[in-house]
Design goal:
The protein is mainly beta and 799 residues long. Helices cover 10% and strands 34% of the residues. It has 9 helices and 51 strands. The strands form 14 sheets. The protein has a 7-stranded mixed beta sheet with strand order 11-9-12-14-25-24-21, sandwiched between helices. A 5-stranded mixed beta sheet has the order 2-8-7-4-5. Strands 27-33-32-29-30 form a 5-stranded mixed beta sheet, with no helix packed on it. A hairpin with a 5-residue loop joins strand 24 and strand 25.
Length: 799
C-alpha cells in the first residue's frame, strides 16, 4: 500500500522451501491437465542461489516481451549482462511437483550476451523504458501447461536473476488464476541503485522530481527488468497459493491483470476467478470484467489484501505494443484524464467506486513488517468454516498482515442476497492506531459467491514456502486450508453451498446379494442441496470379481438411491466421489457370508510321514470363498488310504464355520482326505497329502524257484517300513552269502552294495549258483542284522 521499503532488502536474500503439512482436502484430485502436469519429474533448480544480480551493477537482468503468452505464440527475452559475457536461460513452470516446486521446460545456452544501453527516463512522467535488442526468442510449445513460469538467467560468472511470465491455454478450466503483474510493476523501482530507479512510490524512487512534484513516476513500463531478484512480488504471496492449488489437484488455468483488462469476457468461461497476492492496481476494464462475471454467476475470490484499491490506465509502448505502460497519477488533480478512468483510489472522486461494492471489504491499514496478527474467526457456524473446528473468537496465528481490509460502513456494500463477515481481527497499525480486519463472504443475486480474505498473508496458511525469510513465525494451518477448500468446493458446484456428499448404507449385507444405498449432496447443516449437478463415481474397498457398483450417476434434487453388490465378507467401504469438484465421502458396512456351499480342507503339510498325525483345518465356505460362521452341519471324513491303521476325525461340528483337526495315514504316496456334510453331500471338499515311508524295518529277497548251474539269475532285494511301504530312503549296504561253497569260492555272489536314491528301496542283483541239486542264498545289512532274508531252497539243475 503505502510503505514497503523493507521489500527492497528482503528480495535480495535467498529462497527457502521447508516441507508443508498435507492439505485436508475432501477428495482425490480430478484427472485434469494440472494433475497430469504435476506427475512429471520436478526440480528445485528454479530457486536462485546466493549470487543474485544486484541493480547497481546489473550483472544479468532481463524482461519479457509480454506478461503472458498463449501456447503456440512466441516470446522474446531481452537480456543485459555486465560485463558482456555468455549466459544461460532455464525456464521452469511453477507448481507442486512433489514439493520440488518447479519443472524444467527449456534450457538455452550458452548465449553470447551484450551489455544493453541504459534505459532513458522521461523527465515529465519519470517512466523508465528500455529499448534493448532481443536476447532470445522462442515459441511456446503446445505441451507447456498453463501456469506461472520463471526464466532463470545465469551469466558465466554464476550471477542469476529471474524473468517471470504466464503461459495461457485458453482452456475453460474450473478456476482462473490472475497473476498480479500491475502491482509488481507499480512497486518496481529498477534499477534499484539509490540514484536513478523509479516506481509509482516515493519511498523507493530516486533522482529528479517528476510531474508528481517528487521523485516518484506517474507512468511505469513493463519494458524493463524487475528490481532485485527479478520475480516481482510473485514469490511473496502468490506462489503459496499456486503450490497448494496444484498439490490439491484443482483444475486451474492462469492469466494476468493485462489479460483481464484486454479480454474480460474470458472470466465467463470459468466457475471461479481468483484475484491473488498483492492485487492492488486495477483498470476500469478489469473491474468491469470482474463485476460482469459475478453478475453472470461466476464466483470471485480475493486471496489478498487491498484489491481494487487503485485505478490505473494502460498505454501502448513507444513501439506501439498495447498495454505495456501503466499510468497512475495518484493525485486526481494531476491526471489529464478526468472522469471514470482518472487514476486515483477507486473510492475517491471523481471515480467514486468503492472497492467493497465488488470485494465485500476494502483497504484499511497495515502493520509493521513482521508484526502479523492472528486471524480471529466470527460467525463460525457459517458453511465456510465447516470441518475446521473454528469457534467464534478462535485465532489463527500470523495470518493478518501486512496489509488488511475491513468493511467500512461509510461506504456502500455489495448488492447481496446474503453477506457474512467471517472474522474480526484486531491489530495495531503501523501508526500506533487500533484497527481490525474483516474477511467476507457474500452471494450476489446471480448466485455467485464472492469471498475476500481481508489480509495479504492468507496464502501463508496454505503452504510453507518462504521467500527470503519474509514470513516470521507464520506456520501453515489446516483450518485456513480447509476454509479455502470449502470456498473453492462451493465455487465448483455452482451457486450452492454444498459441503459434502453423504453416503448411507445398511449396517450389513449378504455376500453376492444386492443392497440399497443412498447418496445425498448436503450443506454444512446436513440439508440436501437440490442445485447440485455433479456426477458421482462409486468405488469400494472390495475389488473382488463379481462386485457390482452403480455406474457414474447424477443426483436428482441432490439425492439418489442405488443398488450395490459386494462379495468379500467383513468390513467393507463404499466411496462416492465427485472428483471434478473435489468431493468425496465413504461409509462402512459389514458383509456376511452367504450359506455354505462347499468345504475347504486346508493347512495340511504337503508331506507327512506314514503313521504320523498331521493337522488340517476344515472351513465351511460360501460360493465366494467366505467362511460361513453360521454353518451348523456335521462333517464326515474318509480317505483314499483304507489301511487298517488309518485314523480320521470323528464326525465333527464346526465352530464359527471352522475346525482344526488331525489325521493319520499309513500308505505311502499321494492320498486324499475328504470331508462331506452328513446331510448335504454336495457340501464337500478334499485335501491331498503325500505320505512318505518310514525307515526300513524289514528286508525281502525274491528269487526264482529253480535255476541252471553256472547260469546267472536275478535276485531282487526290497526294504520296507513297518507299514509295508517300500523304504525309498534306505541307504544301507548289503552283503550276500550262500550254501553253495563252490559258488562262493568262484566269486559268483554279488559284491557288497550300498543302496542309492535311484534304487528307491529296491535293487536287483545278478547271482550264479554252481552246485546241484539245491542251494539257498542269504542277504543282510552289513550293520543291522535285523535287516536280512534267506531264500527258500533253490533247485539247481545242470541243464
Amino acid at each position: 500500500m503505502a510503505r514497503k521499503g523493507i521489500l527492497t532488502t528482503l528480495m535480495l536474500l535467498t529462497l527457502f522451501i521447508p516441507a508443508i503439512s498435507r492439505t485436508p482436502m475432501t477428495a482425490a484430485a480430478a484427472d485434469n491437465p494440472v494433475v497430469t502436469e504435476n506427475q512429471q519429474p520436478g526440480s528445485s533448480g528454479w530457486q536462485l542461489g546466493s549470487m543474485i544480480a544486484y541493480d547497481t551493477v546489473n550483472q544479468i537482468k532481463g524482461y519479457a516481451s509480454a506478461t503472458s503468452v498463449l501456447q503456440g505464440n512466441s516470446l522474446t527475452l531481452y537480456v543485459t549482462v555486465s560485463p558482456a559475457e555468455s549466459y544461460n536461460i532455464d525456464v521452469y513452470r511453477i507448481g507442486w511437483y512433489g514439493g520440488l516446486g518447479g519443472r524444467l521446460r527449456l534450457h538455452a545456452g550458452p548465449i553470447d550476451g551484450v551489455t544493453q544501453p541504459s534505459c532513458p527516463t522521461d523527465a515529465t512522467t519519470g517512466m523508465i523504458a528500455c529499448n534493448w535488442s532481443p536476447g532470445y526468442s522462442f515459441t511456446i510449445p503446445s505441451d507447456w501447461t498453463s501456469g506461472v513460469y520463471l526464466a532463470v538467467l545465469t551469466n558465466a560468472d554464476g550471477y542469476q536473476n529471474d524473468v517471470v511470465f504466464v503461459v495461457r491455454d485458453g482452456r475453460p478450466a474450473s478456476l482462473l488464476f490472475q497473476h498480479a503483474v500491475n502491482t509488481d510493476e507499480a512497486y518496481n523501482n529498477w534499477p534499484n541503485d539509490g540514484v536513478t530507479g523509479k516506481s509509482l512510490y516515493d519511498y523507493n524512487s530516486f533522482g529528479a522530481n517528476t510531474v508528481a512534484g517528487s521523485p516518484r513516476a506517474v507512468k511505469v513500463s513493463f519494458d524493463r527488468p524487475f528490481a532485485n531478484n527479478g520475480a516481482g512480488l510473485f514469490l511473496n504471496w502468490e506462489i503459496q497459493l499456486v503450490r497448494w492449488l496444484e498439490r490439491s489437484g484443482y483444475d486451474v488455468t492462469y492469466s494476468t491483470d493485462v489479460d483481464t483488462h484486454a479480454n474480460g469476457s474470458e472470466l465467463l468461461n470459468h466457475k471461479g476467478f481468483l484475484s491473488t497476492g498483492h492485487n492492488e492496481y486495477w483498470s476500469n476494464e478489469m473491474v468491469n470484467a470482474a463485476q460482469n462475471a459475478r453478475d453472470a454467476g461466476v464466483n470471485l475470490a480475493f486471496f489478498g489484501a487491498d484489491p481494487v484499491y487503485r485505478q490505473i490506465r494502460y498505454e501502448a509502448s513507444a513501439a506501439g505494443v498495447a498495454n505495456r505502460v501503466l499510468v497512475f497519477y495518484k493525485d486526481a488533480g494531476l491526471d489529464p484524464v478526468q472522469g471514470p478512468t482518472t487514476t486515483t483510489q477507486f473510492r475517491d472522486d471523481p471515480v467514486n467506486r468503492p472497492e467493497q461494492v465488488l470485494v465485500g471489504v476494502q483497504f484499511t491499514s497495515e502493520v509493521p513488517w513482521g508484526s502479523n496478527a492472528p486471524y480471529v474467526a466470527s460467525n463460525s457456524t457459517n458453511w465456510v468454516y465447516a470441518g475446521t473446528g473454528l469457534q467464534d473468537g478462535d485465532g489463527v496465528p500470523g495470518i493478518v498482515g501486512y496489509e488488511m481490509d475491513r468493511y467500512e460502513p461509510g461506504y456502500p456494500g455489495p448488492n447481496a442476497t446474503s453477506w457474512t463477515l467471517l472474522s474480526q481481527s484486531p491489530f495495531t497499525d503501523s501508526g500506533g492506531n487500533a484497527d481490525y480486519s474483516n474477511s467476507s463472504i457474500y452471494q450476489a443475486p446471480s448466485g455467485a459467491w464472492v469471498f475476500a480474505t481481508g489480509t495479504m498473508s492468507w496464502s501463508w496458511g496454505l503452504d510453507n514456502f518462504d521467500n527470503a525469510g519474509i514470513r516470521t513465525n507464520v506456520p501453515t494451518d489446516t483450518r485456513i486450508q480447509q476454509t479455502t477448500a470449502n470456498i473453492l468446493n462451493a465455487f465448483l458446484v455452482g451457486a450452492g453451498v454444498l459441503h459434502d456428499l453423504k453416503v448411507t448404507l445398511p449396517a450389513s449385507g449378504i455376500a453376492g446379494q444386492p443392497f440399497s444405498l443412498t447418496v445425498t449432496a448436503e450443506d454444512a447443516q446436513g440439508n440436501p442441496v437440490p442445485s447440485y449437478s455433479g456426477t458421482v463415481h462409486f468405488a469400494s474397498s472390495d475389488t473382488t470379481n463379481g462386485v457390482v457398483l452403480p455406474p457414474d450417476s447424477t443426483l436428482v434434487n441432490g439425492q439418489g438411491s442405488f443398488s450395490a453388490t459386494l462379495i468379500r465378507a467383513g468390513s467393507q467401504t463404499i466411496t462416492v466421489a465427485d472428483a471434478a469438484n473435489h468431493l468425496s465421502s465413504s461409509a462402512t458396512l459389514t458383509i456376511i457370508a452367504a450359506p455354505a456351499s462347499q468345504l475347504a480342507l486346508t493347512g495340511a503339510p504337503s508331506t507327512a510321514a506314514a503313521g504320523s498325525s498331521f493337522p488340517f483345518t476344515v472351513s465351511a465356505l460360501d460360493p465366494y470363498g467366505n467362511t460361513d460362521s453360521s454353518y451348523a452341519g456335521k462333517v464326515h471324513f474318509r480317505s483314499s488310504d483304507t489301511s487298517a491303521g488309518v485314523v480320521l476325525p470323528a464326525d465333527s461340528s464346526l465352530t464359527n464355520g471352522q475346525a482344526s483337526l488331525s489325521a493319520t495315514l499309513d500308505r505311502a504316496g499321494s492320498q486324499t482326505v475328504t470331508g462331506t456334510d452328513t446331510a448335504t453331500s454336495s457340501i464337500t471338499g478334499s485335501l491331498t497329502v503325500r505320505i512318505t515311508p518310514l525307515a526300513a524295518s524289514s528286508l525281502s529277497l525274491a528269487v526264482p524257484a529253480s535255476v541252471v548251474a553256472n547260469k546267472p539269475f536275478n535276485a531282487t532285494v526290497t526294504l520296507k517300513d513297518r507299514y509295508g511301504n517300500v523304504a525309498t530312503g534306505y541307504r544301507g549296504t548289503v552283503f550276500f552269502s550262500t550254501s553253495d561253497v563252490v559258488a562262493l569260492e568262484l566269486g559268483k555272489m554279488p559284491a557288497d552294495y550300498t543302496f542309492t536314491a535311484a534304487d528307491a528301496g529296491t535293487h536287483t542283483f545278478s547271482v550264479t549258483l554252481m552246485t546241484p541239486p539245491s542251494q539257498s542264498i542269504r542277504v543282510a545289512d552289513t550293520t543291522n542284522s535285523s535287516l536280512s532274508a534267506t531264500s527258500p531252497p533253490i533247485t539247481v539243475t545242470l541243464v
